[in-house]
Design a protein that fits this description.
- By secondary structure, this protein is an alpha+beta fold.
- The protein has 14 helices and 12 strands.
- The strands form 3 sheets. Strands 2-1-5-4-3 form a 5-stranded antiparallel sheet, with helices on both faces.
- A hairpin with a 4-residue loop joins strand 1 and strand 2.
- The relative contact order is 0.05.
């Protein structure tokens, strides 16, 4: 209340008047008691600085004028009397007035900048509070960090307590999340790659929440990595909705599988229930029923895989496999997808073993080969390329056809994402095949991307690591 009084209306006017008058009077009294030509201007300059600092521009200018008047009329050098006819002395007063005015403007500019900075900081803090996003930084050189107020609220931590270092992450996160952070930081320190993680944080009282953390490297003028900075957003509500969606999807998929199984089994038994030979119309109907049942079952499986991937609950049973042998064996299992297409394998040089889940690898390659059959020119065949690239093996599925426009290359990996050409081609599908394939590749620690030359070839590439991801992160 008192602060508001001194900053508005009559209170502010009184504050400006006091700040303008009191410091020059104190300087005048000090000069009267201890007269000194050497320190006179220093005391009055100090008075102007105090006035402008406490009272602002108006108080500073008024203090400058009052100080000059007091010196002019009451503290004149004895040899000049009260007329002040000495040009040098007159010039000194003018210089004093100029300096005092400049100091007052400087203090006012500084005051406005501080107010603007304070307003911006308050607005940023309020925005972080509303969005539940906190910011943070860590300096490797000093081993010190900084958290915004909202980040303390997200983690329910006392701002007075010291921040956790890398060795203390176990007190702030679950063991799995702490291990993910350490692995991501090690990768960043090795190659400077930014990271984005979903982490489970633990509270001092035993509760927990989920945060989405984005981080990037901080470098000095020489380009050396000296720290990290990033943001963390509370996504507990989103994770709760994801869990509810996963439960709902599981229930729906479970309930759908039973009638689909009944339809498929009945279609298998239908010819036996028909006395005599099955007519062509009946055989065609049975074939359509079987095909539709398989399509429905595949869609249900896709929905289940999407649910597991997005909930990060996909289980992998990985082992070491020779890439070329794995591809050949997988293509043998996928012959039903390519009855009219010639599929060749091109392996470039020696290849290191890959650490993968064999069944999931078949699912990945099956999705890519199936897409190549659907959208490619079957007369020119399909080629599967294998190339060693550092610590990864790159697999590429190449087909000839219309190709994909450059602006749509990333869209094909999104959920339910299909290109304009695919949408109008009459080829059925939910648009989940490549989305699931990319998720499976990333779950293995790899990467998937597309390259296309419109009117010529389209290549869907994915890389898989030649090492145990758990060992690499340890």
């Amino acid at each position: 209340m008192a602060k508001r009084f001194w900053n508005t209306g009559p209170g502010r006017a009184l504050r400006v008047a006091l700040c303008a008058v009191l410091p020059p009077l104190v300087a005048f009294a000090a000069e009267a008691m201890l007269p000194s030509t050497v320190t006179r201007w220093l005391m009055f300059n100090a008075a102007v600085i105090v006035s402008s600092w406490l009272g602002g521009l108006e108080a500073g200018i008024a203090s400058t004028i009052l100080s000059a008047a007091l010196v002019w009329w009451f503290l004149m050098p004895p040899e000049n009397g009260r007329a002040a006819t000495d040009p040098a002395y007159f010039l000194t007063v003018v210089i004093f007035l100029a300096i005092g005015t400049a100091v007052s403007y400087f203090h006012e500019s500084l005051r406005r900048a501080r107010r603007a900075l304070g307003t911006t900081a308050n607005e940023l803090e309020e925005a972080q509070r509303l969005a539940h996003i906190g910011s943070w930084a860590w300096d490797f050189r000093t081993k010190t960090g900084w958290w915004s107020p909202e980040l303390y609220r997200i983690h329910r931590r006392d701002p007075a307590l010291p921040l956790p270092g890398p060795e203390e992450l176990g007190r702030f996160f679950t063991p799995e999340s702490a291990a993910s952070i350490r692995a991501a930081v090690e990768r960043m320190m090795r190659d400077g790659t930014p990271f984005e993680l979903e982490l489970e944080a633990v509270f001092p009282d035993g509760g927990s929440c989920w945060v989405s953390t984005h981080a990037e490297a901080v470098r000095d003028s020489s380009g050396h990595l000296v720290g990290l900075r990033g943001t963390s957003q509370d996504i507990t509500h989103v994770k709760t909705l994801e869990r509810m969606k996963e439960e709902w999807t599981s229930v729906v998929a479970h309930d759908l599988r039973q009638p689909i199984g009944v339809i498929a089994m009945s279609a298998e038994m239908l010819p036996d229930a028909q006395p005599g030979d099955v007519t062509k119309p009946v055989a065609a109907s049975v074939h359509h029923i079987r095909s539709a049942a398989r399509s429905l079952n595949r869609m249900v499986n896709d929905l289940m895989d999407v649910s597991r991937l997005e909930a990060h609950r996909l289980s992998l049973e990985r082992d070491w496999h020779e890439p070329a042998k794995l591809v050949h064996e997988t293509l043998d299992h996928l012959r039903h997808l390519t009855p009219h297409s010639d599929v060749t394998v091109a392996a470039g040089g020696a290849l290191l073993p890959v650490y993968v889940d064999r069944d999931r690898f078949e699912q990945i390659l099956g999705n890519l080969v199936s897409n190549a059959v659907k959208y490619g020119d079957g007369k020119q065949g399909i080629r599967v390329e294998l190339v060693q690239t550092g610590n990864d093996v790159r697999f590429g599925v190449v087909n000839h056809g219309k190709g994909i426009p450059t602006e749509e290359l990333t869209r094909i990996f999104t959920r339910f994402g299909r290109t304009k050409g695919a949408s109008g081609s009459g080829v059925s599908g939910l648009g989940l095949g490549l989305y699931i394939a990319r998720g499976l590749v990333e779950a293995h620690g790899g990467h998937m991307w597309a390259e296309s030359v419109p009117g010529d070839t389209t290549t869907i590439n994915f890389s898989l690591p030649c090492h145990d991801g758990a060992e690499a992160a340890a």
